[in-house]
Each structure stands twice: as C-alpha cells, then as structure tokens.
Design goal:
This protein is an alpha/beta fold. The protein has helices spanning 25-36, 44-56, 64-73, 88-97, 101-106, 108-115, 128-132, 146-159, 166-182, 204-217, and strands spanning 14-18, 39-42, 121-125, 138-143, 195-198. The chain has one domain (14-217): Rossmann fold, CATH 3.40.50.300. The protein is 50% helix and 11% strand. A five-stranded parallel beta sheet has the order 2-3-1-4-5, sandwiched between helices. It binds 2'-deoxycytidine-5'-monophosphate. The site of 2'-deoxycytidine-5'-monophosphate has 15 residues, from helix 2, helix 4 and helix 9.
C-alpha cells in the first residue's frame, strides 16, 4: 500500500491542484487521491471555515486583526465539509479574508502539516503549487471560461437545494476571480512548472485522464 503512494522517484507523492472556483478542482482532486491512495485536502475549506467562524461572530466587514486571531486558533481537526460552508455568503467572506497576508501565513502550517503525512497527499486550492508546496511533485492548474464555471457551480448548488440564479452565480464568480487574482498576497496564478489544463470543453473523465497522463509521463 505504502509502495503504491510513492512517485516515480520512490518517495511519497504530493500533488498540487490549483485554479479558480467552479473549475472542477474538487472533483479532480478527489478522483486523483482515490486513484493513487493519497490523502486529500480541499484548502478552500480552511478559508471557508474561517469565513463561517467570522460569520457566526456577526462580522460583515472583515477586519484583519479579528480574522488573524481566529486563524491562529484553528486546527486541521476543525476542517470538514459541511453545507454551512457552501453558502454564497461564506464563500464571499472566505474570499475577502484570504486577501490578508498575515491570515494566509497563519494558515500555512496547517496545510504543510497535512501534506507531510507519510501517506502522500493531494491538496487543491489557489496557491498550493506556488506558495504552500512549491516543491510539490506534480502541479496542475485548471482553468475554464467563467460562464462554464457558473453553469457548473449552479448545478452543484441546485443539487443542494440552493438556486440563486445563473446571473448571480456568474457575478459572484467574476467578483471572486478579480479579488483572488489581484490580491498582492499569493494571487491566483499558475506555478511556472504547472501543467495548465483548460477544462471548458472537457468532461470530468477527460480531465482525469489528462491528469493521469501528465503524472505518469513526467
Ligand atoms: O475553493 P473555494 O471556492 O472553496 O475557496 C473559497 C475562497 O478561499 C476563495 O475565494 C479564495 C480562498 N482560498 C485561497 O485564497 N487560497 C486557497 N488555497 C484556497 C481558497
């Protein structure tokens, strides 16, 4: 089992999968992790958990100091998928809080601790290949047209019984894209050595197969 998690150089594989929201990172990361028997962390959950904690404290305008205090107290054990984390409000708070360099750096150790597991890991997010794990064995950067991502996101939300409408989802995606890629701390951008894959016209299966070919050819 342990042998299977090793990469071609004989050590535990670490795979970084980055990209904007609604691009298919979550689906791909889960499949890749399962395929190679690696652990998986959606790093967006960390920022969403922080957003939710701020929301519970009744914060609308995000203040760096308050966010930092909570970020410093967070542990990996608090990070778990939940419907509360998937609301547009929490997504927006997560995106706003993620612009603070102090907050981002307070959350780094948690992500690196996860990646240092002796099982190997897939981490997905915005800056995994560039900042969190610049030494990752494989880096994949997914992109897709905003309209395509909005359709995918709306489908996911509808499956959860939430329907904000396509226009609202697209607007939120564009606002978050702008904030995530123009912030000075860890802006959303591919690592120089990332494999860049446009998923706009690909099925989830095709994205998965292309990723496996990249990993196995490298
Ligand atoms: O991937 P997501 O939609 O769950 O992420 C929510 C927000 O968290 C996103 O708008 C930006 C932030 N984020 C980040 O800044 N860095 C990461 N590695 C992951 C998420």
């Amino acid at each position: 089992m342990v042998e299977e998690n090793k990469n071609f150089y004989g050590y535990m594989m670490i795979i970084a999968i980055d990209g904007p929201s609604g691009v298919g990172k979550g689906t791909l990361s889960r499949r890749v992790a399962q395929h190679y028997g690696l652990l998986h962390l959606d790093t967006g959950l960390i920022y969403r958990t922080l957003g939710l904690l701020l929301h519970k404290e009744g914060m609308k305008a995000v203040e760096e100091e308050a966010a930092l205090k909570i970020a410093k107290s967070m542990t990996l054990r608090q990070i778990a998928e939940s419907p509360d984390l998937r609301t547009q409000e929490v997504a927006s708070l997560a995106s706003r809080v993620s612009v603070f360099p102090s907050v981002r750096s307070a959350l780094l150790d948690m992500q690196r601790e996860f990646a240092s597991s002796d099982k190997g890991a897939v981490l997905d997010g915005r800056d995994v290949g560039t900042i969190v794990l610049p030494e990752a064995d494989f880096k994949i950067f997914l992109m897709a047209r905003p309209e395509v991502r909005a359709h995918r996101r709306l489908k996911e939300l509808r499956e959860k019984g939430i329907d904000p409408g396509l226009g609202e989802v697209l607007r939120e995606i564009l606002v978050r894209d702008r904030r995530d890629s123009t912030r000075t701390a860890a802006p959303l951008k591919p690592a120089e050595d990332a494999y860049i894959l446009d998923t706009s016209d690909l099925t989830a299966d095709e994205v998965f197969q292309k990723t496996l070919s990249f990993v196995e050819k490298k």
